[in-house]
């Protein structure tokens, strides 16, 4: 039985991906800091074999323990490691507390780095796939979420680097680049004037992509040959514009100036 290990498995995209892969007959390992969230996700997986692992992705040593526990339960298998855990930090960059900036980097970037580092030997053995959650914010920098954008650019670049490096080991490396997924992270992203990202998206009449669509595209990313998988119309528009309309994107990012 194939096996996937998912960080941020207690909610949002991680939960939706767990449900999708479980429905295809996969074993699922859920990792999160929320025991209650993982239990709720596990209850949605029907008869699929599932294990839960309390994991702070910032802790490199904890990664070793969690993956050892998971592969013990899975009979040594780790076919997909989904580096999905992340947080949103927004607001005026210069006013953002130092500890919040550091926390965002440590979770969104270093959590992905540590997961890849700890997971390499298992993925090499299985000829498996590393799937990282980046973001449309990693396509072109977004005002009001500067540090979040920076971490997602870094995840995108890290994915591209490992795609070149790990092909010799038979490991597929892929990235998801979602735009606006209807999850709780949007409510925790203040982007100025006390407005959340969710409120900003609604005011701009942009779309929310269902989390189930993100899960379906995660499945396609794992099984396909595309390095970056764009999730949502906004992500696809940004990808196009970043290549062919960079001047217009810059002007829009600067409020038309």
TrEMBL record:
Keywords: Oxidoreductase. InterPro entries: NAD(P)-bd_dom_sf, SDR_fam. GO terms for molecular function: oxidoreductase activity. It holds the Pfam family adh_short. Belongs to the short-chain dehydrogenases/reductases (SDR) family. This is SDR family oxidoreductase. It comes from Sphingomonas suaedae.
